[in-house]
Amino acid sequence: MTEPKPRPLAYAPALESAALARLREHYRPFVDGEFTGGTGEPFSSVNPATAEPLAEVSGSDASDVDRAVSAAEEAFRQRWTPIGGTERAKYLFRIARLLQERARELAVLASLETGEPVRKTTEFDLPNAAAQFLHYAGWADKLDYAGFGPSPAPQGVVGQVLPSNLPLLLLAQRVAPALACGATVVVKPAERTPLTALVFGEICEQAGLPAGVVNVLPGGPGVGAKLLAHPGVRKAVFAGSTETGKRVRRDLAGRGKRLTSDLGGSGVNIVFADAAPEEAVRGVVEGAFFNQGRVRCAGSRLLVEESVAEEFVARLRARTESLRVGDPLDRNTDVGALGSAEVARLSELLERGVAEGATRWTSPAAPPHDGGFLPPTLLTDVQQSMSVARAEVFGPVLSVLTFRTPEEAVTKANNTPHGLAAGVWSEKGSRALWTARRLRTGVVWANAFHRFDPTAPFGGRGESGDGRVGGAAGLEAYLDV
Amino acid sequence: MSDGESLANTRKRVAVPKTYKLYVGGSFARSESGRVFPVTGSDGDFRANAAQASRKDLRDAVAAARKAFDGWAGASAHNRGQVMFRVAEMLEGTRDRFAGEVADVEGLPLPEAEAVVDTAVDRMFWYAGWTDKLGVLLGGVNQVAGPYTSHGGPEPVGVVGVVAPRSSSLLGLVSVLAPVMATGNCAVVLVGPEAAVPAVSLCEALATSDVPGGVVNVLTGEPTELAPRLASHSDVDALDPSGAEESLRGELEEAAAATVKRMLDVPLPEQDWSEPPTPKRLRAFTDLKTVWHPLGE
Amino acid sequence: MVDSPPSNPPKAGLPGDLAEATRDEAALTRFLRGLPGIDAVGLEQRAASLAGRAVKGDAKLRAIDTAIGMVDLTTLEGADNASKVRALAAKARRPDSRFPDVPRVAALCVYPDLVSDAVAALRGSGVGVASVATAFPSGRSTIRAKLAEVELAVESGADEVDMVIDRGAFLAGEYGRVFDEIEQVRAACAPAHLKVILETGELGGYDNVWRASWLALLAGADFIKTSTGKVSPAATLPVTHVLLRAVREWRDRTGQPRGVKPAGGIRTTKDAVRYLVAVLEVAGPEWLTPESFRFGASGLLNDLLMQRETQLDGHYSGPDQVAVDL
């Protein structure tokens, strides 16, 4: 036996077939129940893992916006509010079923257009998207009991501008409650990720949803601005970065328009010395690197108690190394693709961090090729004053800071204009809950991270925006209350 | 005795004049700018001078509100309720004085002014009772799938800037202030010249009824001058523009955008403040926090 | 502490804090109670998440062979006798006569009175003989009776002894008693390897499994093993994670390699591959050998053989293609 022994256990690539996505060559806006128009700037949808085009998309222009808004207005008056909550509920239920039936196709499509790992789109995005519709189907005929007083009126036509991460789930979190309330929607998906939203239009068609209740307008930021500013849009919903969110709000000032914003974060995990170490490591790793860190609630900061910091960071590195960076369509991939533009943005952020005195460590996990991937990266020796500790990172980068006392941990955690999500790790119940109470965030996961449920409101405080998705609170944005 | 009576009958007594000051951090003070404006009754006659707040006064007021926030937000809901009930008691006890001021400022017949004061007292009382029920109203248990307990509850947004109503001096002010207090927030209120007298009297009631200093700060002056500053101040977390004119609303919205301030959606023209309140303002000045914890052996 | 002489001298070869933990019952109790906690939900999620790793194609074939080489082929029935042991021994030597390249299993695991039959049937094969002992499966007997069983097994030629801990004593907090018993068995079974069965299904939670793992390692276990197979739940992935964490930390702190054996309830190739993934991710690649990881199972081997055939021939196998365990 002189030949080298094969490794006793290895992970071979387990690729999902891209053909499952049933990609078409060309996609058009979905307006008034039909895939028509799109006389704006055409653009390509590009796979961020390969930089190769997936499909051509007809972009929307002002006339498409006009058509979509008037279709939504007419649907609101004629076809959606008048049918009543019970009938609306059944349409939402139909949509949920169709999402479940076409889950595999949509999971692969979402992975292709976002670079997000297919295991994540399959196990997380799709079941949760369907669950949103199931949950809100139940609300549609029970609005009197949602806590907003009797017979709350819907907002009318809602314009929604959505970001490029978890595109189908984020759409479901906003479209489902809007429809339940009796509002009609015009959705502008991110320019990078229009395909799942357009296939969602097809699902609305298959569900027999009345024309104009849901409209989808692919295009760039200009289309979104036109949509939200359109006089026919009664309610504007913006989900995206804080920076863009502020601009959107300035643009809408004085137009007598209501706006709900779901903006960025700089989430934090606080690890006390008495935390269950392995679970805390897992929580911090998931918190920072789930979906390549491309969720607004990502735990991009770690605050670890000084007395255990060295040991904890060693464990963190070891666990981070075990994450597999690779082809998003490989079911063994933990960290997928970002696209080269995002990698460039994050590299700059990392360079700035190092220049400011942080120490960089990047997982040796090898990406399949150079462009479009960034293996999980830790920055240690980070201080509160450094730009990385304050930024909306939105990528697989974790800044490690330390603290000495619970009070200091809370002060440092709250020392950011954002206020979206935080994790607290301690086996001492009173300390975990004390900390949870003192954190200025919309969500606190104590001894957990990244838990989501359609019944549990999720949203930010401060510059992370004012919207809530989930539960009865998720209805508020779509009701005139 | 008879001498005194005859004196009163023959010579008009000269009243001791009052200077209407700003109420900041629990103290009454003149504007640091030294500016004043004349306060007139609805008949147009001069009544007194009131301090005209400056930008510096606004900064001080926001700082005072921020300083008071942890204590007020951290106080038990029961305790906040007790303090607010005490305010209602104090208003009730000085009902006649407020009625006189409201009648004078708003040009109402005394019985109508009395009814307005009664409503204002009831309004404070109504909100006082909410302090320890917000969790039931705005929060609850989330029935999540999976081995977790998840619950939500409202938390105060922080410092709330308020442009006080102009159409109702006392009732309007109480209607916008009480929900801010009840939710555990601290307020910086801009009051226009026409409402200055009842506003300062209300502050005197607050100062003598256990409301910690800095929880409510009232600046009299010209709201159009200070409101945009309040809206752009990055340490102000929410804005209630109730008394802002239509021409000012756009500017305020734009200024508030820079820090993603909560902006209360209020109608134009001002609502009828005698209408019974709803929990809308309680919801507006709280952020819902969702807390999760695993359930394991 | 000062006025009572230590019940055990601190163990040689252990770093200070671990040696200190073995000084007396009070020190041991302090150490075990001071161990950091385990969050059940987080643990179970990690186990479930790793179970989603895909192992396919050639990698799967290698994983199957790896697993076969780790099987402790086990028979622990009242009806066991010499003929059953001979039948299993033949299968342990050469699991699938159609494929001579199938690795032999790690050991044959029997009751103490059948050890001599197993030793005779496996002589020269390289397959070890393991014997359960210490009033298996309940552990409810006197230490004298338990040691007598160990002696019987070792004198009959057992290479490995699978003892059970006294769960009653453990749950009563009598850690010193459990420790002493393991130490005495350890002394009695030398030079055979000692596997200590924690019977995790009776310990009432992961924190106790974690404490029992450390207790067994401190007392000298070569392997820690989840279950007897006679109590439900037997081995589970999360419980095995806890044991794997313990041996990894033990190695990190002492430099000494220790092994893990999940037993009971592992029946399919899919299960076995999930355990191997856990070994790789939680402990490390150096544990992927029969010296450091075993499966205590009876039905698993046949499923591994059928899946192996499927991988090689590309068609599904059936139960009669491989030998029954009778």
Automatic annotation (TrEMBL), chain A:
Keywords: Oxidoreductase
PANTHER family, sorted: ALDEHYDE DEHYDROGENASE-RELATED
GO molecular function: oxidoreductase activity, acting on the aldehyde or oxo group of donors, NAD or NADP as acceptor
Keyword Oxidoreductase: yes
Domain of life: Bacteria
UniProt domain Aldehyde dehydrogenase: residue ranges: 39-480
Provenance organism: Actinopolyspora xinjiangensis
Family according to the record: Belongs to the aldehyde dehydrogenase family.
InterPro entries cross-referenced by the UniProt entry: Ald_DH/histidinol_DH, Ald_DH_C, Ald_DH_N, Aldehyde_DH_dom
Protein name: Aldehyde dehydrogenase (NAD+)
Taxonomic path: Bacteria, Bacillati, Actinomycetota, Actinomycetes, Actinopolysporales
TrEMBL record, chain B:
Taxonomy, superkingdom: Bacteria
Regions annotated as coiled coil: none
Occurrences of domain Aldehyde dehydrogenase (ranges): 42-263
GO molecular function, one term: oxidoreductase activity
Region (Disordered): 230-249
Protein name per the record: Aldehyde dehydrogenase (NAD+)
Pfam families registered for this protein in UniProt: Aldedh
Keyword terms: Oxidoreductase
SUPFAM superfamilies for the chain: ALDH-like
From TrEMBL, chain C:
SMART domains: DeoC
Superkingdom as given in the UniProt entry: Bacteria
Catalyzed reaction equations: 2-deoxy-D-ribose 5-phosphate = D-glyceraldehyde 3-phosphate + acetaldehyde
GO biological process assignments: carbohydrate catabolic process; deoxyribonucleotide catabolic process
SUPFAM superfamilies attached to this UniProt entry: Aldolase (SSF51569)
UniProt keyword annotation of Lyase present: yes
Keyword Transcription regulation included in the entry's annotation: no
Family: Belongs to the DeoC/FbaB aldolase family. DeoC type 2 subfamily.
Protein name, UniProt field: Deoxyribose-phosphate aldolase
